[in-house]
Please model this.
Amino acid sequence: MSEKPEIEFQEGPPPTELVVTDLIVGDGAEAQPGGTVTVHYVGVDYETGEQFDASWDRGESISFPLRGLIQGWQDGIPGMRVGGRRQLVIPPELAYGTSGGHRLSGRTLVFVIDLIEA
Model:
């Protein structure tokens, strides 16, 4: 997993619940709920396919405690193993809310996450 993933355009209406898909199953340590993880990721808007963020573009992975992240990451990353690549499709209720001041409020988000360390 040494290169930035391409996220396929999503077909159909956005899901109303978190959708977790393992693209590559890792064989390393397992991410724990509330644990700290190091990841590379790409995030796109479900409906437009436009990228809004990517650690790959900054040239370095990022580490953070899961409990500080949006609910979709808190629910979707635990159980993932180091070396794995997972896609999360996150409805607004589990991301930045259905309305509010965040630029991604009301949006369904798609992330492809590579787990580097757990």
Observations:
- The two ends are 16 Å apart (CA to CA).
